């Protein structure tokens, strides 16, 4: 059972915004006009050579006969798409102790377009379905699509595995090897493109901008379901329609297998196309030009030697920045230079916060100050320093943002944490909030979706800018996460699989109660020490160090923790299990939005191994990625799923609402959360926020400097 904790308001807003989405990228060439009932680009059940627009994210739900499918599909690259599907098969078990019960299956698909459509040649794609699951939908295919005018497309291909279960016409490599799925989650590559193969074909006709008719000859005979008596298969011909309610919402309906009616919906989002039109935020101050140098009084420097004048300037700057959602942490002034440290509390783009800051400075600082050195900080730690000339700001206010970017320098900040003595008197150290929360658990075979809703009280106090006390208490109001359902008994220490017991007894619960100390121990170095009740299941101490140059795509870190398992009531007591856990981590940014990460070390159950991650990050803050963990725990000991793996999505509210916000909706979809490969969940890990204040993040988001 896995839990993705998110603020309830964020989930509610995200759902509403999704159905009101603005159009994704315009469709050209062989970009798909519809998704199948399996949630992939294609016709009704059969794949096509079509692809979605680059970066498109589609959430689909459909039902036909005994099949219910929920699918997440992402166009990873212009030619490559990936899908994660969760399927329910009604009354799957015909005999035995599970007789009459439903079956829940998780599967992953990949499709790659090897040839783009041209004037004479079709688009050609190759794909594999259910290549890392139980194998019920395991199949491979090669398919071509050709457009005949603007409305008609024809499709045809060859399928293996399940897509060769109706009327095969040939064989490659002899009999297709039997697949022993075991606990699921293992690659079935020894089956790929082997055994019988069969043809499939179809047509799609776009009647108008809203309505598309589809028909296909399917090579899927539903042999698994028919053999178990859950459906009746009468015909290979399927017929369907797709209706575009809006560019973001599609409805489809179909008649399948000569015996079943089906229907589904697809929500299509694209990080490149914001949900809300930009420009909803409050306009910034205009740049205030300095008077001519002939005005000697305005350009005077007597204020430098007058403490009262400098104190007044600091107050004006702090107050003005506070209205912009930016905290002034320090301000040092000379006759020609202003060096300030800021903490951006509002803007998803650091360059936007810097742009707002320099506008304030043109109003608040005497005319003699020409150089601005702005250091971005977080958790009291300087991340980088942006240096620019005031005269460039005045001259280029109405020029493109990248004209300014070419004239600034971005350097590593002085590796010294902000001190209390530097703080203006207007800094707020204590903050608190009461908000709803929602916890969601996915993919328990006996109940695919569980949830819990309640209230969360959180508070934070800064003993110093880099020493933070933080805590949160939550009280459940309604939910079923506490249902004590056990799929099997884990042979590993129960570091995660006792989640239902924590939900049952932890109400109210201390979510976390910690003290964190952040530092800059040297050039390019960052450190963190956190002690206390670190997460809902473990307390102890965690220490971390990160090496990350401001302009380098490479970062290396290490973390070690001693933790003890908390009591199920999540108050102050502990159980008798403790462990030393830790990882060495390497991060690399390829500079094209893709980054990778490897964490190698010891996990909470005492197992050793590594986690491999790949993420795609967009300039507007979207992040979509996947990961898997392999340790020395065998698939049999791990249990269902064989090893830990999942997909994570982070959607910034700024993208959805069009107003500045650092908040985001984040969700993590795991096949299952088991004890093997389980890592400590501690807030404030260094790389998660240090990278946001470094060079690549500035370059990708500098377009919002003047916003």
UniProtKB/TrEMBL annotation:
Keywords: Signal
InterPro entries documented for this protein: YbjH
Pfam families, per database record: YjbH
Signal peptide (UniProt feature, chain positions): 1-26
Domain of life: Bacteria
Region feature Disordered, mapped onto this chain: 273-299
Protein name per Swiss-Prot or TrEMBL: Exopolysaccharide biosynthesis protein YbjH
């Amino acid at each position: 059972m896995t839990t993705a904790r998110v603020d309830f308001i964020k989930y509610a807003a995200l759902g509403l915004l999704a159905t009101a989405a603005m159009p994704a990228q315009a469709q050209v060439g062989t970009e798909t006009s519809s998704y199948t009932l399996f949630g992939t680009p294609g016709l009704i059940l059969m794949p096509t050579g079509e692809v979605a627009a680059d970066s498109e994210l589609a959430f689909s739900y459909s039902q036909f006969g005994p099949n219910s499918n929920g699918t997440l599909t992402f166009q990873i690259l212009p030619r490559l798409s990936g899908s994660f599907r969760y399927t329910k098969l009604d009354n799957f078990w015909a005999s035995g102790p599970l007789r009459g019960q439903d079956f829940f299956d998780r599967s992953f698909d990949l499709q790659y377009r090897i040839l783009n459509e041209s004037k004479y040649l079709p688009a050609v794609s190759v794909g594999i379905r259910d290549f890392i699951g139980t194998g019920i939908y395991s199949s491979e295919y090669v398919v071509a699509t050709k457009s005949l005018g603007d409305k008609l497309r024809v499709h045809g291909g060859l399928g293996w595995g399940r897509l060769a279960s109706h009327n095969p016409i040939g064989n490659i490599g002899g009999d297709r090897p039997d697949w022993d799925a075991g606990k699921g989650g293992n690659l079935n590559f020894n089956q790929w493109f082997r055994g019988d193969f069969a043809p499939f074909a179809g047509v799609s006709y776009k009647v108008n901008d809203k309505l598309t008719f589809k028909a296909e000859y399917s090579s899927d005979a539903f042999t698994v379901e028919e053999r178990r008596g859950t459906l009746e298969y009468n015909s290979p011909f399927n017929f369907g329609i797709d209706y575009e309610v809006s560019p973001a919402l599609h409805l489809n309906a179909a008649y399948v297998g000569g015996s079943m009616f089906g229907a589904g919906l697809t929500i299509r989002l694209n990080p490149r196309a914001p949900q809300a039109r930009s420009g909803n935020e409050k306009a910034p101050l205009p740049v205030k030009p300095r008077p001519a140098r002939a005005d000697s009084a305005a350009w005077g420097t007597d204020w430098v030697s007058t403490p009262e004048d400098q104190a007044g300037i600091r107050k004006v700057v702090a107050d003005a920045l506070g209205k912009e959602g930016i905290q002034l942490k320090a301000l040092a002034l000379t006759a020609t230079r202003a060096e300030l440290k800021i903490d951006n509390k509002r803007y998803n783009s650091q360059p936007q916060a810097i742009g707002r800051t320099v506008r304030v400075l043109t109003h608040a600082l005497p005319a003699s100050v020409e150089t601005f050195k702005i250091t971005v900080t977080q958790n009291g730690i300087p991340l980088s320093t942006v240096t620019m000339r005031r005269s460039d700001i005045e001259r280029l206010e109405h020029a493109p943002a990248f004209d300014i970017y070419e004239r600034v320098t971005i350097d590593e900040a002085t590796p010294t944490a902000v001190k209390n003595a530097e703080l203006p008197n207007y800094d707020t150290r204590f903050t608190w909030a009461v908000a709803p929360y929602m916890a969601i658990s996915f993919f328990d075979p006996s109940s695919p979706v569980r949830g819990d809703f309640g209230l969360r009280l959180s508070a934070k106090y800064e003993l110093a800018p880099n020493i933070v006390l933080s805590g949160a208490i939550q009280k459940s109001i309604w939910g079923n996460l506490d249902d004590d359902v056990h799929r099997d008994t884990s042979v590993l220490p129960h570091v995660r699989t006792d989640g239902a017991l924590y939900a049952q007894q932890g109400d109210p619960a201390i979510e976390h109660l910690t003290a964190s100390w952040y530092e800059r121990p040297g050039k390019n170095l960052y450190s963190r020490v956190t002690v206390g009740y670190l997460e809902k299941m473990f307390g102890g101490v965690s220490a971390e160090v990160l090496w990350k140059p401001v302009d380098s795509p490479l970062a290396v870190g290490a973390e070690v923790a001693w933790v003890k398992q908390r009591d199920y009531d999540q108050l102050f007591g502990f159980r008798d299990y403790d462990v030393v856990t830790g990882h060495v981590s390497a991060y690399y940014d390829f500079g094209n939005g893709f980054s990778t990460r490897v964490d190698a070390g010891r996990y909470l159950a005492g197992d050793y191994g590594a986690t491999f991650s790949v993420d795609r990050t967009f300039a507007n803050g979207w992040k979509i990625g996947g990961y898997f963990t392999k340790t020395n725990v065998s698939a049999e000991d791990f249990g269902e799923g064989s090893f830990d793996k999942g997909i994570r999505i982070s959607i910034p509210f700024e993208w959805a609402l069009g107003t500045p916000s650092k908040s985001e909706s984040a969700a993590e979809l795991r096949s299952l959360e088991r004890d093997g490969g389980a890592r400590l969940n501690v807030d404030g890990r260094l790389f998660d926020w240090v990278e946001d204040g470094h060079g690549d993040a500035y370059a990708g988001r500098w377009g919002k400097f003047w916003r």
